[in-house]
Amino acid sequence: MIDREKFVEMAKVNIAHVQAGGTASQAPGVFRVPASHYLDPERWDAEMARIFKRVPLMLALSGELREPGDYKAMTVMEVPVLLTRGADGEIRAFMNSCSHRGSMIVEEGLGHAKRISCPYHNWTYNSEGDLVGLTDRREFGQVDTSCLGLTPLPVAVRAGLVFVVLSPGAYLDIDEFLQGYERVLEHFDFASWELKWRQEIPGPNWKVAYDGYLDFYHLPFLHKNTFGTDISNKALYSTWGPHQRVQRPDPKLLELLDKSEADWSLDMMDGGVWTIFPHISFAGDHSGGMFSQLFPGPTWDRSVTVQSWFVPTNEVEITRRSNLVPDGTENGSAQQQAFMRHVVEDEDYYTGLRLQKALAAGAKTEVLFGRNEGGGHMFHSWVERCLTDDAPFSRPVEVDYETPQAAGRAGA
User: For position 120, which CATH number holds?
Assistant: First the structure.
């Protein structure tokens, strides 16, 4: 069930900031993160083990696997992953690796096949991951094929989003992880959305890159030649455990005051940037938008971001509804795709790589997040929680503003 009350609550907060002159959220203090937390290879190794190999990662919209037999193959941080929708309608996740010699079975991308065969020796699996065909079985020798299916990965689907843990046999409590966030995300009906385009963009350390997705402070300056100088840099933050929504004070919401709260349209209240810890940013609203999946690269100083633009399948006429694209640009077009690459690669990540280079040279021992940058406070506090706690999502995180090293004392 959609959490309508939360939408109304967030709209009221937004309206109050509009009426106060377009003010921003204010955290209790300035937050400090040691520069070494972006640079230390040992800490990065801990982040890979304690976060990216343990936390549920959003790898797909369920609409990408709409019919039984649909699949999506991808490599996530050197882990070959295969998502399938079985004949029973269930979405499953597996290691994309044959039980014979370990060869990757399916090329990366989307496809449809009720059965998939390994290109090496033609061992064949169904969409439930069972081994159903063994080439020259009599000559091969005696094996129990019931034990030779694809290696499963923990998977859960909520609000039309597919979450996977990259470690076979790992514990997955998706409800504890989402903290009720799915009841808000249900509004978008992501299960019915379709992909318009997808591209990959290289970037700096994953935290350097992700800081930008939670930061509106830089928008009218770094993006002065793309988004325009008239865009507000004031941010309002809402949280569900480690997950956050970022929005700007929106004068259009004042129109709601002429109506009863029962008549407030969710479609008027759903814009902004919706993030999913530790690596997802959805920038858009009910009419479509861009999912950015940010993954660490093979070394501490690199990352890769997969940009995917989706729109609702039932969207008959697609129009521009946000500041994400230039005036006159159609949602889902090649022009839009090129624009988004330029903004992120040539502005955000170009700056992030230079920032990272300066920090690595010893320019500063710490970086600062102001009271108006509360999203970074929460993000880095949750990163620290994951590094130091075996049950990181079992209780709220507490942000420590007293100790300069509070953003990450341990875990490094």
Answer: 2.102.10.10
Count: domains in the chain: 2
Domain that holds residue 320: 4-55+192-388
Residue 281's domain is classified under what CATH number? 3.90.380.10
Backbone angles phi, psi at 246, to 5 degrees: -120, 130
313 membership: H or E segment, kind and range: none
3-state percent helix, strand, coil for the chain, nearest multiple of 5: 30, 25, 45
Q: What is the rounded distance in angstroms from the CA atom of residue 236 to the CA atom of residue 375? A: 9
Q: Which of 104, 139, 171 is the last residue of a domain?
A: 171
Q: Strands across the sheet with 131-133, in order?
A: 115-117, 124-126, 131-133
Clarify whether residues 157 and 32 are in a common domain: no
Q: What is the pLDDT along the chain (412 residues), one digit of tens a residue?
A: 899 999 999 999 999 999 999 999 999 999 999 999 999 999 999 999 999 999 999 999 999 999 999 999 999 999 999 999 999 999 999 999 999 999 999 999 999 999 999 999 999 999 999 999 999 999 999 999 999 999 999 999 999 999 999 999 999 999 999 999 999 999 999 999 999 999 999 999 999 999 999 999 999 999 999 986 778 899 999 999 999 999 999 999 999 999 999 999 999 999 999 999 999 999 999 999 999 999 999 999 999 999 999 999 875 444 434 445 555 566 668 899 999 999 999 999 999 999 999 999 999 999 999 999 999 999 999 999 999 999 999 999 999 887 655 444 433 3
| b/e per residue 358-396 (b: at least 16 CB within 10 A) | ebeeeeeeebebeebbbbbbbbbbbbbbbbeeeebbeee
Cis? peptide before 204, omega within 30° of 0: no
Beta-bridge partners for 246: 237, 273
Question: CA 347 to CA 352: how far, in whole Å?
Answer: 9
Distance CA 163, CA 183 (A): 16
